[in-house]
Specification:
- Helix 6 runs antiparallel to helix 7 and helix 14 packs antiparallel against helix 15.
- By secondary structure, this protein is an alpha+beta fold.
- The chain has an eight-stranded antiparallel beta sheet with strand order 14-13-10-11-12-15-22-20, sandwiched between helices.
- The longest helix is centred in the middle third of the chain and has 17 residues.
- Helix content is about 35%, strand content about 25%.
Length: about 525
């Protein structure tokens, strides 16, 4: 899954970590309605089952690794590249035209769109995900909160605008500061606002409503008590829609910037055995309550006092699913395919082991020193890490271009160790070995995070980056240092050295002739 010739080795790392192979192909052909690293990651499991891989792509992705890997690729169009990947009619038509029996939406784009799931099913194909009505229920944060609270699961004190719009501001103020204002239809941290001074509450509500309308076409809000220095802990669940539900333990996703995750790990260093059992059983209980089918994630806010509260449910495969695969040995995409074909789980909770510790790093094209500004450009040189306990899920290749049209995440670097200490050390080494020239990335920034004493001690929370920002962003190099760094990097790459030392054919033909 790397982009530098180490692809097969990195894919093999999944098997080395104990990944269970697929047992027969549930579908003859699967269309992947996504792009980048997740499209390629899904395609590898689909191909391993002997199933035909069908890709859709905008012309900007025509040379991307996931398109080259597919057995068949269909170009889709739109007023923008993102719009193409959101075009339900065009994608369903491509699936039908290519003989796909199922469609996997990955994450993002249409992955949590109930109308897309309905359209795929109406066309006679399986949509690899939960039931459309469950997507609608759990995708609406207000309805999901109410559903969970009514069944006795913990939620934070809150005020919901839908209950009585005229009194929303008063009810939000009554919850007390600090408050977190959130769009009802939100996701990915967009539109969220922390209010510590209730004097600014009405202004922040108006801003939140405007952002919710802009990002999601829905300005409805809710406000909940904000937990200071919280951890973000989520639980991977899988259901067969036939009464069978299991969990694959938890992941901690507290290292975030602007409510966007950067580093995820499992197990969480915050939980003991009793705490782990409580939060995982609560997640499985929520999944059972909706008769959940396929893979999903229940997310919680975890307080310093050990209390945890339902945050939301993501009705799809998560970006960070590889860490779960590394500790349990299960291929979650293979399980998704099997369940989508109508198979029961066929195993219980006791069949799911947890071995060692895994950490995932999101390699993004961004400049942490410039307030995480997105970076673009051509990938001149790409060398991904390899070795024991290292896996790379990449969506880019050397010679490709990083476009401003899409999310800045380029790849995921995943490490596994016998314990957290070994996983951290492997993470440091893997990030040091990561080379991507031509585009600024956050590789060094990620390494500095896990080298922080607080991270090594497991003292993480969602404000960790902001709290340690001065230590995480060193002063920029001087022009002289920059020149030396570029020269050293170039001289460390055999291809560049060979090119510099090669004598052109014309000159070589002159032999030892000299002009005296």
């Amino acid at each position: 899954m790397g982009g530098n010739g180490a692809t097969e080795a990195n894919h093999a790392a999944i098997t080395e970590a104990g990944m269970k192979p697929g047992t027969g192909a549930p579908f003859a052909a699967v269309l992947i309605a996504n792009r980048g690293e997740i499209a390629l990651r899904i395609a590898r499991t689909v191909r391993a089952q002997g199933t035909r891989v069908i890709a859709v792509h905008h012309r900007e992705d025509a040379a991307a690794p996931f398109v080259r890997f597919a057995d068949e690729a269909v170009e889709i169009t739109g007023p923008s590249p993102v719009a193409a990947y959101l075009d339900i009619g065009q994608i369903v038509a491509a699936a039908r035209a290519t003989g796909a029996e199922a469609v996997h939406p990955g994450y993002g784009f249409l992955a949590e769109n109930a109308d897309f799931a309905k359209a795929v099913e109406a066309a006679g194909m399986a949509c690899i995900g939960p039931q459309p009505d469950v997507i609608s229920l759990m995708g609406d944060k207000v309805r999901a909160r109410a559903f969970v609270a009514e069944r006795g699961f913990p939620v934070l004190p809150s005020a919901i605008e839908d209950d009585d719009p005229a009194t929303f501001v008063e009810r939000a103020r009554a919850v007390g500061a600090p408050l977190l204002i959130k769009p009802a239809a939100g996701g990915g941290g967009k539109g969220m606002r922390i209010v510590r001074d209730l004097g600014t509450l009405e202004t922040e509500i108006e801003r939140g409503r405007s952002e919710g309308q802009r990002y999601f076409g829905d300005g409805r809000l809710y406000a909940e008590r904000y937990v200071e220095r919280p951890r973000h802990i989520e639980v991977q669940v899988l259901g067969d829609g036939q009464g069978g539900v299991v969990h694959f333990f938890e992941r901690e996703c507290s290292i975030q910037r602007r409510f966007q995750k950067l580093i995820e790990e499992t197990p969480s260093p915050a939980l003991d055995a009793a705490g782990r059992r409580a939060i995982c059983e609560a997640a499985a209980g929520i999944a059972r309550a909706v008769d959940y089918r396929n893979a999903g994630t229940i997310e919680f806010i975890y307080g310093q006092d050990g209390g945890f509260y339902f945050l939301e449910m993501n009705t799809r495969l998560q970006v960070e699913h590889p860490v779960t695969e590394m500790i349990t040995g299960y291929d979650l995409v293979a399980e998704q395919l099997r369940v989508a074909a109508g198979a029961p789980l066929g195993y219980g909770q006791d069949a799911i082991p947890s071995h060692g510790h895994a950490i995932e790093f999101r390699l993004c094209a961004e400049d942490a020193a410039r307030d995480f500004a997105p970076a673009i450009g051509d990938i001149l040189l790409l060398r991904m890490p390899e070795g024991e306990g290292v896996r790379v899920d990449s969506g880019v290749a050397q010679g490709g271009a990083v476009s401003p049209a899409f999310d800045p995440m380029l790849a995921k670097i995943i490490v596994h160790g016998r314990d957290r200490t070994e996983a951290i050390e492997r993470g440091v080494r893997a990030l040091k070995e990561t080379v991507l020239l031509g585009v600024t990335t956050n590789a060094s920034f990620l390494r500095r995070i896990i080298e922080q004493p607080g991270f090594r001690a497991g003292e993480t929370h969602t404000g960790f980056i902001a709290e340690h920002l001065d230590a995480l962003i060193p002063p920029p190099p001087t022009p002289e240092q920059e020149t030396l760094l570029i020269a050293a990097t170039a001289l460390a790459e055999p291809q560049i050295v060979a090119a510099a030392e090669t004598v052109p054919d014309l000159h070589a033909a002159m032999g030892g002739w000299r002009n005296r």
